[in-house]
Design a protein that fits this description.
By secondary structure, this protein is of the alpha/beta class. The protein has helices at 8-16, 22-33, 71-74, 82-93, 131-147, 159-166, 169-172, 209-213, 219-233; strands at residues 52-53, 59-63, 114-118, 153-157, 187-190, 199-204. The two termini are 28 Å apart.
Length: 234
């Protein structure tokens, strides 16, 4: 049970001040002090990233972790990297975003009906957080989902996010059975949750540059998942 005083704003502050994982603290700060030439003159955020979006969201998208030269630089999830370019263009097509591009925290992007967050809040080396780092961040994700109780669909962006969600007690207990193997388009009804209504755990491949360039994921596939999320949220 969360304290009555814990709000999304309180969680925002807790996340941005977090120093629980020494490896991630070192890496996020290293990225800021040794940036590539394209970002050499920029001031990096170099802190953990809170979720953002519409507090009344019907859809919560859960990614893996911020990118060292993306969210770790700009201060907002998926902002300023190729994964975000793909994601926000799709959210715009689906009516969840007011614009198709996001390059900075003050670029005017607004989400309607959607909230974007991640399993791990700091940029990890090689984009690979450890299971311990995932579990250390888990209470932030659980607290967000508790407060976003209007969300009917939780969209896992990749297998890592799926695993992180499944390990949350309120998710695992709400399935009533064995965990299905991760797959693009997988739907898992959650029979019980902290929300005031049933939820569905929906899955897609992560919109990483590698997945998009290799054809594992494309815009049409992702659009269909978001369309299904709309149906499930109705």
């Amino acid at each position: 049970m969360r304290p009555a005083s814990r709000t999304l704003e309180v969680i925002h502050d807790e996340v941005t001040k977090c120093t629980r994982c020494p490896r991630l603290v070192a890496w996020r700060e290293h990225a800021a002090t040794d940036p590539p030439a394209a970002h050499a003159t920029e001031h990096y955020w170099a802190r953990p990233l809170p979720g953002f979006g519409d507090p009344a969201a019907s859809l919560v998208l859960v990614g893996l972790a911020p990118a060292a030269q993306g969210g770790n630089r700009t201060g907002r999830m998926f902002t300023g990297d190729r994964s975000g370019d793909f994601l926000f263009a799709a959210l715009y097509r689906a009516g969840y975003a007011n614009q198709p591009l996001s390059c900075s925290i003050d670029d005017g992007l607004e989400l309607s009906g959607a909230w974007v967050t991640a399993a791990v809040r700091c940029a990890p080396p090689a984009n690979k957080p450890t299971p311990l780092e995932r579990d250390t961040c888990a209470d932030y994700l659980a607290a967000e989902l508790d407060l976003l109780n209007g969300a009917k669909v939780l969209l896992a962006l990749g297998a890592f996010a799926y695993e992180a969600l499944w390990r949350l007690p309120e998710i695992g207990k709400g399935t009533g059975g064995k965990r299905p193997r991760f797959a693009h388009g997988l739907e898992v009804p959650l029979l019980a949750s902290a929300a005031a209504h049933p939820r569905t755990l929906l899955c897609t491949y992560h919109p990483s540059q590698r997945n998009v360039f290799t054809g594992l994921l494309n815009g049409e596939m992702f659009d269909k998942v978001l369309s299904r999320a709309r149906e499930l949220s109705a």
